[in-house]
Amino acid sequence: xAKRLGERGEEYRMLERDVTAAARHHNCPAEDISIGLDxxxxxxx
Length: 45
Prior knowledge:
By secondary structure, this protein is mainly alpha-helical.
């Protein structure tokens, strides 16, 4: 499980590219970009 959490898969890299592109477009740091994802109420560990 720890390995899975630590790895950055393709979905992560695509999201990271999108956030970086949005930050450049708005001339702000990537940390200021909100991605608006909803988190599940219950997480099955």
